[in-house]
């Protein structure tokens, strides 16, 4: 599909009433980012194929988090501490950052900058002043890049700790036909077993039942291979040592109100994260991390991913 000039447009979604920003790359790819949650909801390739999963039962009404896309889980992941599950960033209204600081140079001129700060409501549950800046960018070839910068702006001299995850819902053809390479031999925390620490034994991660794991000290790149679609997602990360992996399978899916029963077959959550060891920031200090996703056609040799015969779209 022929592309045009890269563009960014701010619109109001007629179906949900929520404001969003639509990024269109010259290559024909597009991304939709909602100000609610600072959340990427849709990501299409140049053939208008959706790459992210959004449940057909997803709620777009605050304060419910939107089930799908890429959720920003901050300042915690899971149910640690007194905050709501996965923190508050995914169900707060972000603002467009009109004067962002310089970000590392990228090949993209198609991006938007958002910012989330403390509010009286947030200060009641997390008594810290902060600035969370988020850049969402599309490369000319359709790679999706999220860069986060978090700064401690406390005036009282107090440090704070946080965890973060890009909770990314990938759309897949059939979860039983998906494999992940790059996590083999790693230690992980099994959230289905009271966060027991275990070691991955397989030569790749495959799916036959519910999974809820945090892989520790993961490499900077992993690949998610969708056999039926002949498609591979390459996930690269910086500043985020861990990788979160989740699929509710059939029984758990039935207990989730904003998740249709059979949808577990078509989704997989994989995201760069910092879970095991929280990050500490003193006043004035800033942390930065990023996640980048590319889509490439898959080629197989004895069921293994062969980078020598994969060519970037």
Automatic annotation (TrEMBL):
Claim: Cell cycle is one of the keywords in the record = no
- Residues spanning the signal sequence: none
Per the record's keyword annotation, is rRNA-binding included, yes or no? no
Which GO cellular component term is one of those annotated?
A: cytoplasm
Q: InterPro entries, from UniProt?
A: Aldose_1/G6P_1-epimerase (IPR008183), G6P_1-epimerase (IPR025532), Gal_mutarotase_sf_dom (IPR011013), GH-type_carb-bd (IPR014718)
Matching entries from Pfam families are given as: Aldose_epim (PF01263)
What keywords sit in the KW lines? Isomerase
Catalyzed reactions:
alpha-D-glucose 6-phosphate = beta-D-glucose 6-phosphate
Main EC class of this protein? isomerase
| SUPFAM superfamilies listed in its UniProt record | Galactose mutarotase-like
EC assignment = 5.1.3.15
Q: Where does substrate bind?
A: 67, 85, 90
Q: Which GO annotations describe the biological process of this protein?
A: carbohydrate metabolic process
Task: List the GO molecular function terms.
Answer: carbohydrate binding; glucose-6-phosphate 1-epimerase activity
**Family per UniProt?**
Belongs to the glucose-6-phosphate 1-epimerase family.
Protein name per UniProt? glucose-6-phosphate 1-epimerase
Tell me the classification of the organism that encodes this protein.
Answer: Eukaryota, Viridiplantae, Streptophyta, Embryophyta, Tracheophyta
């Amino acid at each position: 599909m022929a592309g045009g000039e890269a563009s960014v447009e701010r619109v109001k979604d007629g179906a949900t009433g929520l404001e969003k920003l639509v990024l269109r790359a010259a290559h024909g790819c597009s991304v939709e980012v909602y100000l609610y949650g600072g959340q990427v909801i849709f990501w299409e390739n140049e053939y208008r194929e959706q790459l992210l999963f959004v449940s057909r039962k997803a709620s777009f009404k605050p304060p419910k988090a939107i089930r799908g896309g890429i959720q920003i889980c901050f300042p915690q992941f899971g149910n640690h501490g007194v905050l709501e599950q996965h923190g508050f960033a995914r169900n707060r209204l972000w603002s467009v950052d009109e004067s962002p600081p310089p970000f590392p140079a990228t090949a993209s001129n198609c991006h938007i900058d958002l910012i989330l700060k403390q509010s009286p409501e947030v200060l009641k549950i997390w008594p810290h002043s902060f600035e969370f800046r988020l850049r969402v960018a599309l490369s000319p070839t359709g790679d999706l890049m999220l860069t986060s910068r978090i700064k401690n702006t406390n005036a009282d001299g107090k440090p704070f700790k946080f965890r973060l995850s890009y909770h990314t819902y990938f759309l897949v053809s059939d979860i039983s036909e998906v494999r992940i390479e790059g996590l083999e031999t790693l230690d992980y925390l099994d959230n289905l077993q009271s966060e027991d620490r275990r070691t991955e034994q397989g030569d790749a991660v495959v799916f036959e039942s519910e999974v809820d794991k945090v892989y520790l000290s993961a490499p900077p790149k992993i690949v998610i291979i969708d056999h039926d679609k002949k498609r591979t997602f390459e996930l690269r990360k910086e500043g985020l040592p861990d990788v979160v992996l989740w699929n509710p399978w059939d029984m758990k899916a039935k207990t989730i109100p904003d998740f249709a029963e059979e949808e577990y077959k078509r989704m997989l959550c994989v995201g760069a994260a910092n879970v095991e060891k929280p990050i500490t920031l003193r006043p004035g200090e800033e942390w930065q991390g990023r996640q980048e996703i590319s889509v490439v056609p898959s080629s197989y040799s004895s069921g293994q991913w062969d980078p020598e015969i994969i060519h970037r779209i």
